[in-house]
Amino acid sequence: MTDLDFRHDVDRPVPGPPNSNLADILERVLDKGIVIAGDIKIDLLDIELLTIRLRLFVASVDTAKKAGIDWWETDPALSSRAARSALQEENRELRTRLEALESGPRDMASADR
Prior knowledge:
It is a single chain. By secondary structure, the protein is α+β, with helices and mostly antiparallel strands. Helices cover 51% and strands 20% of the residues. The protein has 5 helices and 2 strands.
């Protein structure tokens, strides 16, 4: 067979995997979740200089919560509710310390009399 014998097959489409659009793929990934893990380690003469561990979990919020991951709800940088809670806790601690400092010298002054 020569090269000319195969040229008539060029116009015929080649069967391949079924087409999936990006939305279908994204929905499937977010529904099930996907974990990507990797380590980067740099050694020089058998001396470990640097180790970086990378973990990536891509999922929907519901899937992440089912997996027990909800750090975005308690991180003040990501959640206004968590930021308010952190601020309220800090204010409570500061008021307690202030009361302790204000009552300290008075107790000492009354003990001196």
